[in-house]
Amino acid sequence: MTTHFRRTARAGAILGLASLALVACGRDAGSDAPVEQGEAIGDGKATGTIEVWAMGTEGEVLGDFAEAFAEENPDAEVEVTAVPWDSAHDKIANAIAAGETPDVTLVGTTWMGEFAESGGLDPLPEDLVDSAAFFDGAWGSTEVGGTSYGVPWYVETRVLYYRKDLAAKAGWDEAPATWDELKQFTTDLQSKGGAEYGIQLQAGNTGSWQTVLPFAWTNGVAVTNDEGTEYTIDSPEMVEALDYYTSFFEEGISPMRMLDPGELESGFADGTYGSFISGPWHTGLVEEQGVDEDEYGVALLPGVDSAGGTSFVGGGDLAVFSDSDNKESAWKFVQWLADPATQQGFYDEVGDLPAVSESWETGELSEDPQLAVFGEQLDNALAPPAVPTWEEVATVIDGEVEKATKGATSVEDAVAEMQRQAEQIGTGL
Amino acid sequence: MSTLTAERQAAPPKAPASRGGGEWRRTPTWLYGVLFAGLFLVVVPFVWMLLSSLKPEAEVRAVPPTWWPETITLDNYSTLFTKLDFPTYFLNSAIVALAVTAGNMVFCSMLGYALAKLDFPGKKALFAIVLGTLMIPGVVTFVPLFVLTTNIGLSNTLLGMVLPFLAGPFGVFLMRQFIQALPDELIQAARIDGAGELRIFFSVILPLCGPALATLGILTFLTSWNNFLWPLVVAQTEEKYTLPVALALYSVGQNATQYGLLLAGSVVVVLPVLAIFLVLQRHIMQGIAMTGIK
Amino acid sequence: MSTVATRTGTRTRHVDPTRRQQAVAAWALALPFVLLFAVFSLGPVLASLGMSFTDMRRTDIRDPFAVNPVGLDNYVQLVQDPLFRKVTLNTLLYLLLGVPLTMAVALLVAVGINRVERFRGFLRVGYYLPVVTSIVAVSVVWKFLYRDNGGLFNTILGWVGIDGPGWLDSTTLALPSLVLMAVWRNFGTLMVIFLAGLQTIPQEVNEAAEVDGASGWSRFRHVTLPMLRPTLLFGAVITGLGYLQFFEEAFVMTKGGPLDSTRSATYFTFDQFGFGNYGYAAAASYLLFLAVVLLTWVQFRWLGERDETTVKGAKR
Predict the structure, then answer these.
(1) CATH-assigned architecture of domain A48-157+313-382
(2) A93 touches chain C (CB under 8 A)
(3) ipTM of the shown complex
């Protein structure tokens, strides 16, 4: 009996302490004032150690590449730690949580919102860079609630890849420029060009939003209002765009299944898929599978009635942590990386497309016709809203797109549901 | 039939290796057939993994997948060993995994024995709590754990990668179940002989735990060796990375993955686990000599 | 209670150490584990439990106390969330299909290997390989097996005239397909545990039973299984917990689709955590925890310790 009583008493004590702790919690009511840009940094050279996190190939190469910076700033030292892309997001989040961060980090463009909102990133100092020097869409990815928290480093955008030879067989000398043309083009690729599917589009799940939103944007949809405080997904334009997207599946022009890794490239090479929408990395991948340079081409995304569709822009931004102990020098390093000459040098080294438009005016970037398409598309590309809850809302969009393409709900219902759930989730700002 | 209990108590220590006699010992051939057929089914992906690590990237991605490499290349392996600072990462992984394994084997068997054979206040509650934490997905405790580890100064240390995993509830549960099956008479006899409680644990019980310890060792080593997320988050500089982290660094990109490299890395990562398995699995099959009471 | 030969003849009964001696020894043995456990496991668990009663998100991470306590709101919202209900159902299905299948396969293989005399080591390592094979390799091969056009399963079905479906593209077949793959992938761990357990059954017991005239199957049912009880319980609980945390296979093969039919409760929690909804994710974990406690309690009742005398007396 006594053990029982003791056990209950113990449980009660623990609960009591826990509730006490909870009582101590509470959110501040008024922290909604817009954050100001940081103070402009001084003119001198950088000093001290600048610790940098960078992922993937960029991380592997940056250490050596940054030696040029060290030469210009002899009192400074750049230490780069390469971080795997797999879970880099978690690593940064945890570092911010524990208050143990380096000075500079590469940030995926869709992560800016949540990290900025957590207070872990330092607002961009005024006049550090000229925002007009960057592609609009790329700059948009750094702005959270009207304040910029970083500088775009490299970009990628999505274009239409298509089999030129199959298109020629189907009677097309040029890529389609409007939505009607795209429909006809892909149908012809199937019926006359010999492809099993005219185009490969994602039916939903895992990132289909990156292909669907460009259609929406092209039709004039704005996902949020200007301040990023409300969602404006539900609109006739959105319904039209999604309707157009799902029609490819309904008419059998695009497969509905999720492809296995490698399946798209193999399928493109053997003519199963006549076209698809993707970013610059796919040029290497399809050529690896044996597609000849003259057998395929890339083209701007089609607009609704006239040429010029809006595409998706992604890539990486550079940010400085608010827990950094060497902020001024850190921002100087960022400034150096954003310099047009540095950007071009980095492209030569790694192949990342520069975020600064001036870098595209010289060198290989201006001469290669394929790259020219990407460059032109970058002038008409948007980033998703830099709000903290974006990942979650994107998943909602993916889910509803899947239901619509597979016929589980109507397009109108899908869009309405997207709006409803997005509102419930909120933007986090 | 009293033969049963009597035999269990008084059977002379028979060397487990002697398998002569008894009709039932002859193994039916069909069993071999079935086992090997099953083995074939089970081993196919592993073999594909090995073969594919020798293929160039484009062939690895080819759909439908190929079996024998059309082109054999050692590129994946050479990239692995030249680009990565292999010895450092391997050493880090080894230190962490071995420390976690050894720690678990010792601490979990101690507590497992206490829970299985001793009577003490708080026993049931302790077991319930330990078992309870086993049921909570690691993902959820991750953030508080990381904040804690950093604030006690263990960020970017191998110790920080080891400590949180030294007290694994899985090990306690495993050891408790095994030790429970050991006969109480052994313990009673040792007590009569005048041995202290701790002495009983170390001299009587532990030697009999060969199979259980070996099992725990293998399973703990595997988990710890393949652990990716925790070492990634604890390490602040590359020299503290473990092997899985380094592997992901070089093969998984923002938009594309280098599967050839990843597979080659997986082969290399799996080898120590298999080595430990081969070493320890003999102990799993070591029969417990049911020695009678002296 | 049997009499035991004494040494000097002065004692004629068992000596039980005092409860106090046992308690001291027990806590001495338990101390290292308990200390580490309290700091690194219990602490974070309690912290995350607290988290589940707030509306904490990732953006609050630097100021964890500046969140609003919301009582049971997260839990209520979860129960009302159609996706959470769906994933709970999925997880239950995984459990019901996966646990018995994995245990049966593991037990069969363990008994088989225990029975043969040669190649044991070879067979043990081989059957354990799926557990250690990289998930990338596993997924490539299994995706090939399950492909609609040209996949191995459908090709074989084609030989007998059956038009196989798109296994992983079907909302009804995807989950069982993944269960099969999970069984294949995970039975090796259980097999190792069962092998060790089988070793605790002394040779003499089986031989005595055979001398008594018991057949193979009868021996298995009345001698082997009862003596394996603690191990079987362990296996059942661990496998149950494993399937509750079922995640990797779905993540790699189907990404939770099609239409969320292969999304498990753990996948859901993982997603929520990824979105930064820490409070909500924590609440989901603790709901799962409650379900598991229930499941485990049932398993303990069913397979748990029985009175020793019942086992010993069974042969009578």
Answers:
(1) 3-Layer(aba) Sandwich (3.40)
(2) yes
(3) 0.83
